[in-house]
Design brief:
The protein is of the alpha+beta class. The protein has one domain: Aminopeptidase. 35% of the residues lie in helices and 36% in strands. The longest helix is centred in the first third of the chain and has 22 residues. It is globular. It holds the Pfam family Acetyltransf_10. This is GNAT family N-acetyltransferase. It comes from Planococcus dechangensis.
Length: 148
């Protein structure tokens, strides 16, 4: 079940952190870059986030998506699935839920250019590559946009 989760709650923030760290470590390996901020994010930093979180709950938190919305644009900040739950359609369900729940004019998201699974997922929903930008020496991210 996908529902809004309260990341300000300490136990929820700990659950977010517990799946976020290993998931972002995998992306870091794909990118050849270990400087992804979410790998070292503390529980307190998660609790202080101004993002809105939707969680995939099935006995426990198996994945989540977070976003901010402003001026008709939904900016996806995180899409995380517990690595032991990879390839079960959880990320697809989270993106689908957000797209149906928010009737925004536009959605934007950035991911590591080398993160082929994430790129393919967003492209399958109709997101179009907009720009590539360097986040560290030789390491790039790609921004995607979906216009309603």
């Amino acid at each position: 079940m996908i529902t809004t989760i309260d990341h300000r709650d300490e136990s929820t923030a700990k659950a977010i952190q517990s799946i976020q760290r290993p998931a972002y470590r995998i992306e870091a390996e794909l990118m050849g870059f270990d400087g992804i901020p979410h790998i070292t994010e503390t529980v307190e930093e998660i609790q202080q986030s101004s993002e809105i979180f939707l969680g995939f709950m099935d006995g426990y938190l198996k994945g989540f998506i977070s976003y901010k919305e402003q001026d008709g644009i939904v900016d996806i900040y995180r899409l995380v699935v517990d690595p032991i739950q990879f390839r079960q359609g959880i990320a697809r369900q989270l993106v689908d839920q957000l797209l149906h729940e928010k009737k925004a004019a536009e959605f934007i998201v950035s991911t590591g250019t080398a993160n082929t699974p994430a790129r393919k997922l967003y492209e399958s929903f109709g997101f179009k590559e907009e720009e590539t930008f360097e986040v560290a020496d030789g390491v790039t991210c790609t921004q995607f946009r979906l216009t309603a």
